[in-house]
Every structure is written in C-alpha cells, then in structure tokens.
Amino acid sequence: MGVKGGEFLRRRFENRAILILTCRIVTPMFLGDAWQEAALRAAPFKGLLRYWWRVAAGSRVKDHKELLERETEFFGGGGEKAQKSLVRIWVEGEVESTKDVISKKENYVVHPEVDFCPKECLKENPTCRYKKKADCQKRHEISPFSYLGGMGLFYSDGFRVRRSYLAPGESFTLNMGVPEYLLEDNEEAEIFKTALLYFRAFGAVGSRSRNGWGSFQVEGIEPESCILKLKDGLKGSLPYWKDCFDKPHPHTLATDHEGKILLWKAEKFKSWQEALKFLAEVYIYVRTGYVPEEYNWPKKTKLDPDGTHNIAERHLLGFPLTNHPAVNVGWGKWSQKKNKYVPDARLASPLRFLVKKYSNIYKVFVLHLPYYLDPKLYSKSNEKVEWISKKQQIEIWQKVHERLDQAMQRAGINECL
C-alpha cells in the first residue's frame, strides 16, 4: 500500500464505483441513536466492514502497528496524519422499529449455575426460594434471550426489551462507494473482496451482535463482478488454528488439522426465536458442560469460571463474567454499593454467533477467530500477574471445539452466503 500525495487523491476521486447490497434483517437489530431509540445508521456497517478488513489483512502484516497504518490509509483516521476514507457507505430504506416482547415466557432454558425462583414460581410456592435443596424445576431456568442479550437489553423477566429494535424481516439497501481498482486484480482488491465476503457471510451489527442479535442477510449485490467466489485457493491459504496465537488480535480465519474451517452450523429451525434459543443452549453447554434433556450430547466438565483473583478458563470466552472479576489482573474494582468486587473491563468474545434464513428455514452458525490473549495488552495491572499461558489457551480452545463438534456440524463459508 503506502499510496501518498497526488496518486492517493487520484485513487480517491477518479474512477469510482458504487456497490449496492440488498439486505434483510434476520434477528432483532439493536442499533440506536443518541437517545437509544432504534435507528438505521451507516456507521455500524462501516465499522463491521472495517473489522472484517482487519481479519482479511491481518495475516499479511507483521504486527498490529502496521495493520493500523494500512487500515488508516484505507478507511481514514484522525490525528496528525488525518485523512478521509477511501470507502463511503450510506443506507436507504424505511425500516420498522418496535418494542414488542421477544418471545413467549415459556421459552426458558436451563442453566445449572442459576439458582433462584422466578416470580411466576413464587406465586405458586412463596417459600420455594428459601429451599435450596427443594426439587424446584424452575430454579435453574433463565430466558435464552437475556442470556444472549444481557440486562442492558432486557428487563429482569428476560423477554421484555428495554429499548426499541429494528424488526426481523425488514429490508434495506446498503450502498458502498469505492475506487474501481478495488474491484480489479491486485493485492488491495483481494483484501477488500475477502473482507466483503466475510461481511456478507458473518454479518451482524448492533448491541450483542456477537451473540446472534442483529444478524442480517445480503440477498443481492451489484455489480456481481465484485463478488469473491470461494475457491480452493482461499481455503488452502488459511492457517492451522494453533499457529494463530502469534498475534494478540483477530487476524485470520483458521482451519483444524483436517483442513476444516472453525465454523459450525445447525439447521431446520422454524423461527429466529428457536434459533437463538438453541444458540443459548449450545453456549451454556460449552461453558458449563450441562446437556439439555432433548439432546444426546456427552456431558462435560465446566470450563473453570473461578477467576475471583486471576483469569480462568471461561474468561477466554469473553468478559465481563458475572461474579468472577479477576481482580489481580485489574479486571475488577470494589463496589461500596454491592459490597464486593465487580467487573471493570471488557473483552470481546473470539466466538461469533449468527442466524441466517433460507426460504422458511433458519440456520445458526458459530465462528471462532483464534488469537493470543497477551497479558502485555490485556492485563490492567501494573504488577506481574498470573496469566494463562499460550499453551493453556490452546488447550482451553481445544475443549471448546470438541463441545461445538458434539452439539453442531462443521460448515463452509459458502453456506453462510
């Protein structure tokens, strides 16, 4: 890259092309304006394209500093070397927003580490909550939607939303203005087309989009010449996943020892609610080893969630983690109000959940982007801390892969398009 001066301006303003993507929302999309009301905005989609550009370009650079430099040349940035983006994105369409209840309240899932009775149960048996050893069928039940969405999106019942969302089934048009050379045959074009492929395959935006919310489908793209067809060469160029712990950020898709991409699927759901409920059950299984009655998955031990003082196995799947603040690494702070340590850091999960719709059938996908959780970047403590080694991190993710293999099937990127 490194295009500067007049050549940079020529590329920016001459010979531009417009890509038109026809999109449809699959699961509730929690995109908000300044008042936290649902609004269709271009910025989150540009941020998503930028994220997948980093993944597409990450294996071609030596470190995150070079990646940032090349990303700034492409998408723009601030500071002393401020410049505008080569890519312009705008959205069109009247999309309905709503605050409708997500699902019927009987759509609960079981979480073995939850131990309280919901209000409906208390009405039937007011003393049940005090009988910890009582045979209460509801004490471990939670809403799958609040489990995937969190209390920031849902009220305590787990089905009523706190703010409006863009409704599933609504369609919109996403326009991208790009230099024509990005549609030709060169290194920059290859990176951009790969990023656009990932954008289409794994598209989800808004709050909790890594957990399946805000999934959308690209139903059409013009001109078709910008579509990157998946060839054996792309799959063959993906690294073995255990070799991806050389960098402390998501930088590539990866394969296992059999050459299978770290992508899993499950099919034949009748609604997006059923699809999200299944993803919640899979996530609970991955984290706790608990097997729902209707499935024949082998029972597993739970991923260690301890980490009151140091990070533990389950922290690799994302943070904050309720009741496990990892104080020694600076991920927790003391709360006078709650009289305990509470989480004070964020770590995005390397797992991404997606929901797609094909005709009247919904499918779910889970993608893993492996990278090294480096204490030099992720520890907030000024002192030397106990950390999970690179070898241990690989072993933990091996456990996650084994559980996903038990609960789901392997998939290819083309199945997400």
What class do helices, strands and sheet pairing give? alpha+beta
What's the arrangement of strands in the largest beta sheet?
2-7-1-8
For the secondary structure, the number of strands is 14
Sheet of most strands: 4 strands, antiparallel
Task: Quote the distance from N terminus to C terminus.
Answer: 29 Å
By CATH, the topology of the largest domain is: Alpha-Beta Plaits
Strand content: 15-25%
Topology overview:
Blueprint: H1 5-13, E1 16-25, H2 43-57, H3 64-75, E2 88-92, E3 97-98, E4 109-110, H4 119-124, E5 141-142, H5 144-149, E6 165-166, E7 171-179, H6 187-201, E8 216-222, H7 232-236, E9 263-269, H8 272-288, E10 332-335, E11 340-343, E12 351-358, E13 361-368, H9 375-378, H10 390-407, E14 409-410
Antiparallel strand pairs: 1-7, 1-8, 2-7, 3-6, 4-5, 9-13, 9-14, 10-11, 12-13
Please describe the structure with a list of short key phrases separated by commas or semicolons.
417 residues; alpha+beta; 26% helix; globular; single chain; Alpha-Beta Plaits; 10 helices; four-stranded antiparallel sheet
